[in-house]
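Progress report, Aim 2. The chain analyzed during this reporting quarter is listed below.
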Amino acid sequence: MTTTNDKPRILTGDTPTGRLHLGHWVGSVENRVRLQDEYDCYFLLANMHAFTTRAETPDDIRTDTIEIVRDWLAAGVDPERSCIVLQTEIPAIAEMTWYFAMLLGYGRLMRNPTIKTEIDVKGLGDKYSFGFLMYAVGQIADILAFRPQYVPVGEDQIPHIEMCREIARKFDQLYCGVDPKLDDADYVQGGGVFPVPEGLVGRVARLVGVDGVNKMSKSLNNCIYLSDNEKQVKKKVNKIFTGRQSATEPGDTTNSLFQYVDAFITDEGRVAELKRKYAAGDDIGDGHVKAEVAEAINALLGPMRERRAEFEGPSGEATVIDIIKSGTQRANVVAEETLWMAKEAMKLDFFPRNLSLS
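Predicted structure tokens for the chain:
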């Protein structure tokens, strides 16, 4: 079976570790929603990866998987235009993870700064599982199983994308005879199975959390969630610390508060006016700016709250599961096609197989 969509393809996703927040929105999710009409979009629920650090909490992983889909749907992901995919029901991903592991050295894997950061942030020390390291290889398989041209990600995921690009080149050169002198964009035309995908970073590469210091992160409890209500948003925005003492003191418009001004107030004239007055100490305090930021964020999240309400409760969860199943069925067609192409290149094409979900 072959796929015929002529649009360039996108693959990205999230590991279910809890609800999505504004950092996810400006870093990646906003891009996904915007690109749905222009691209053939696949959005992966990486629930297998969640087991690399949370294997003892399967109930929580299942709950978080449902919650992330609710967040996606609330944000504007349309299952009629985009394919929502459950990783654990795409067996081609697991098989390709094994093949790609043969092409990736341990030393190269451990030079990935994202892996080092996760080990430090999660306090894993030297007690992480082998599966934790395989997660990085699995992420390559997640991407290449769908042969995408682009991968919308946050800035911190770019090292993973670069490693994926290396493996795509190596596979195509080794098994497909692609000339290593070719430009990345020409690898498929040159006979390769896999395109060399490009990362697409969102308009805000790193949104600071409401602590005003660290990147917005669930583990640091400094998030504004996409599902927060108006009161919660106002309370959290009011926590943003700038160190400014009074409304007549010249302010720094590169501080954490003004990152939110730039990210969420859509009226460019108003942003310019706030910056001018704040920098001049022209009788505008942090409280006033925070009120405008909270209003802008609530204007963004209001429609999301309404859409999310459609998928709450038992009946809403049943709808979510139906959406996941439908998307996964469609995704398996693509992933199985990719696996067969890869196995042909590797001389493992003894006989084809058909896969279906009941």
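The two ends are 18 Å apart (CA to CA). Residues 313-345 form the longest helix (33 residues). These observations will guide the mutagenesis work planned for the next reporting period.
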